[in-house]
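Onboarding guide, step 5: your first structure request.
Type a short instruction followed by the sequence, for example:

Predict the 3D structure of this protein.
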Amino acid sequence: MKAKRVAILVGVLLFCSAASGNSLVGVSAPTINVRQWITPNPPDIKNLKNTVYLLEFWATWCKPCVRNIPHLMDIQNKYGRLGLEIVALSQDKSADLVKQFVRDKGMNYNVAIDNGTADFYGIRGYPTIVIINHRGKVAWVGYPWDIDFDKQIKKAVTAGPPPHLAGVELGPFKNLRKSLWPGRKFPAAYKKLRRVADESRDTRKVAAAVAILRAIDKGITEKIALADKVRRVKPHIARGLYATILEDYGRVDVTAPAEAAYLELKDYNEQPARARLLGNRLSR
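The system replies with structure tokens like these:
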């Protein structure tokens, strides 16, 4: 009887945590099929060009999957603003059960009921993670607790274009690609482009600079519009969103409205983690 229990336990663990043994890495990612979205404002899975996304094959009854949720939430907070899309494909049958589970856990990334995608990817157990790069190729397959998991996400995200410049040709400004990511180097790179657009006599450089600035301004303006929308109902969350915009892009012309709004809301405490969670969901 004891041997039988051990055999059953081993079988459950293998089923629950075995990663796919196929060799998908380097090939075009198979189709994603969703039976029902659980979380609101899902990504357009038919148009993920220039987008890095992470697929998690999981289930509510899989204990290793449940233990992995806080890790994925941390990844969403860290890389969501850099363009990463997480799509957790549940193997559960009941949408109502998964909806309640998502609410109870406070999951801040996309969740859906799978419709055969696990078969397309040759998934043999849960949880299994698949990372797809911005070129639509499978970059990595493995366990969420693998030592290379976080490194592979960072590698895939940084290899692609900055999220606000997806599909924009940098031309003579390719050397600024890393500096144009959200962060402390962004303001100087942005101001350099503005000087070229306003002062250069090189028509090729001016055209490229204008196109890049137009894309950047559009992306930041959309983020500010989102914060403005949230401000009408949850000012304390909006202040966190404005703070995140200023943290990511600094003081440049296009962020001036965010700075003014942030200062107007000085009586509200910042809640950047919650702000990013809400912002990521509403901005899709």
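Each response can be followed by summary notes, for example: The domain at 2-160 is CATH 3.40.30.10 (Glutaredoxin).
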